[in-house]
Design brief:
Arc Repressor Mutant, subunit A, about 70% helix, 10 helices, single chain, 2 domains, mainly alpha, about 210 residues, Tetracycline Repressor, domain 2
């Protein structure tokens, strides 16, 4: 295989950006359904409608492609939760964000799980670089939750004893754990209970 690292470092044309995005989207869809290990580069080629040389022009190997999928899924998770994530600075907003998560799982029958969580389960113990990318993705998700809770504390809606860092981490952990159980049981009640329990705890800090 010809080394194309210098080519990949060059700025992409609009056509090149579109081709790269199509490859990543195809890989993300296949990996979400079949998993990383059961998705081959050849599968991605067929799904994206590109040749091997085209795919390797943008990605040196499957690991590089998977890392691009992680970045895409992190972006998708954050975009799908807007505008809620940008305004989690009241109890009403927190409960509305909770409702969006639970209703989405109810409509999907509990199937699918979290794109980032699913990738973490497959890659965190096997690929240190992928694990670091996933950790960064979760941090991006946690930060707006933390910012909203901090804003609530700063304006007096939460007491000074409230710790936005711990509370944000607890909410994100409730989402991830709730999604795993929801996916396994095909019942969104696990997600609802997990989020309601953490939200009830946050209410104990109401000023």
């Amino acid at each position: 295989m010809t080394d194309t690292s210098q080519d990949r470092a060059r700025p992409l044309t609009a056509k090149g950006q579109a081709t790269r995005a199509r490859i990543v989207a195809a890989a993300a869809d296949l990996i979400f359904v079949h998993g990383v290990s059961r998705t081959s580069v050849e599968d991605v080629q067929r799904e994206a409608g590109v040749s091997a040389s085209q795919l390797y022009h943008y990605f040196g190997d499957k690991r590089a492609l998977v890392r691009a999928v992680i970045a895409r899924q992190a972006d998708a998770v954050l975009q799908n939760q807007e505008p809620f994530l940008s305004h989690l600075d009241s109890f009403e907003a927190l409960h509305a964000w909770r409702d969006v998560h639970v209703e989405a799982q109810r409509q999907r029958g509990g199937a699918g799980g979290c794109p980032l969580g699913t990738l973490a389960a497959q890659l965190a113990d096997e690929d240190p670089e992928a694990r670091a990318d996933l950790a960064a993705g979760f941090c991006r998700w946690e930060e707006p939750i933390r910012a909203g809770l901090r804003a609530m504390r700063d304006r007096g809606a939460l007491s000074p004893e409230a710790d936005p860092d711990q509370l944000a981490l607890a909410l994100l952990a409730a989402v991830q754990g709730g999604l795993v159980l929801t996916q396994t049981r095909r019942d969104p009640r696990a997600l609802a209970v997990a989020l309601d329990t953490v939200l009830a705890y946050i209410h104990t800090f109401a000023a």
